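Let us begin with a simple case.
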Amino acid sequence: MKKLIIIFIIAAVNQIFDCSAKKTSSFGSDTLTIATYNIRVKTPVDTSYRSWDNRKNEVAKVIKVNNFDVFGVQEIKDKQQKKDLITLLPEYGSFSKGRSNTKGTKGENIAIFYNKSRFKKIDNGFFFLSESPSIAGKGWDAALNRICVWVKLYDNVSKNSFYFFNVHFDHLGKIAREKSAILVNEKIKSIAGDNAVICSGDFNAAITETNLFDVFSPQLNDSRVISEKIQNEILATYNGWDIESTAFPDSYRIDYIFCKNFQVFSYNVLTTRTEHN
């Protein structure tokens, strides 16, 4: 048996104005477990253990075992892959949009999933990462259409609401990534105002792309940087299906969770491995 490595980020957070007195409930406390997860598109190129049909149950298992409260998902290829996730995760509500038309009803999706017993979705939206955010199309030097989805959630435990943004930046266009960061930053200001915010996603950018991250730093915190506890020293979040290696270069950190008005208690890059023949 070999093991397939699955890497994603998980962070435990709490809204700053509540951290002085944690509230308890059937969920344990008002602390949130937040994650970002690029699940990899469903594609015939992936065969055997890499195929979605063989991976989907393991993807759902990891989410359930770690009790994610809210998490962003990237690379939902089509309606069937989305249906699989919804079927396997009945305890979660979701909001997703596709990148191939202006209505967001076609093409590869990104999504936000939330525990529907704990949270109520009270608003949502999406926009394209381009010069014309309300119209489908590629932005700047991007290779593909890219989007950002967002929801406003009410937490039945803390009795507070917050905004969650999820992004997938372009993998080739460096200018597009920088401009997308500027656009997302502006949208967060206009949509969320002074409210608590989490922005998760696959940014396709190493931390050395300072032009991108300098845009976020005045408004949003890198959850790893401000976390009270780092669960492990792993930085990389990309592995390229390398099932033999156990360590990857720090430059392979391309997935992030940024936040505003949250205290971060712990941060972890999970490296779950699933067995296969």
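The second case is a distinct protein. As before, the sequence precedes its structure tokens.
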Amino acid sequence: MRGMLTLLLIGCGAETGETSWSQVETQGLDILWVVDNSSSMGEEQDILGSGFLSFVNELDEDDVRIAVTSTSFDATLGGFEGDTPFITPQDDDFLSEFASRARIGINGGDKEKGLEASIAALRDNEGDFMRPETLLVVVYVSDEEDCSDGGLLDGEPPEECYRQMDSLPPVADYVSELQDVKGTSESVLVGAIVGPKASCEDSYPGRRYWAAAYQTGGLVGNICEADWSRFMEDLGASSTGGLRRRFAVNERVVEDTLEVMVGSKEAKGWVWDDEACAIVFDEDTAPEGGAKITATYEIDVDAKPCLAVE
């Protein structure tokens, strides 16, 4: 369980913080891909299907379930793609079946509600897909911003989402819902292949998806790139092995003040990811199951806040 962030005032008005987590060792993976099926996504769906092998090659888990849903929450109401709720590596046509499901079509709604769609899909298919002992990985793939609005903009045109972005329910609320569906915050990892800050043609920055990923210690890839294999490799490596290696602090820290402890010992083999505001352990130094990880640091009060808390 992630600890509460404690702020203290020390000399010269500097703020310090402390965040703690418990390492949970999971068994197996349940992976939900949430794919934008609006009219601009045909090429990106092809890239996702072709890059899937890079993801699979990094998985050392035999116990994997993979499902696909769309961002058209109003239309699909939590449905999964395909004739069965999920596919596994043991299926004879595993790679081709994922590619088929990822090519979800481009006739979906233009008000993409990826966060809401993922929660609805998991709730509606909980008994058929998600298991209590596994790591839940949710990956959003979209060239638009998330417009999950909790019904606020029902009946309004899609562009109204961008005009009222500040009025949408906070991303943290949807992350909490994901964790509630799973039953534990430590067993949820979010990834996103979305528009970057300096977006490309026909793509918009996916800030709300970035935030969901960073709040869970997840990864963000660039949908504008023609080859996603590197991101897919990194995502696969982060998803496997049963032990979490990324721990989101969600504060801009002064890096040289950051101290990390595993139990009563100083942690080794980690780096600070300033973009994601996260501590990242090497594959060989990930804390063991049941370990308590504690980070203390000075907060960089002059820096822009992490995307996860904007």
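The two ends are 23 Å apart (CA to CA). The chain has two domains: 6-24+245-309, 29-239.
Keep these points in mind for the review questions at the end of the chapter.
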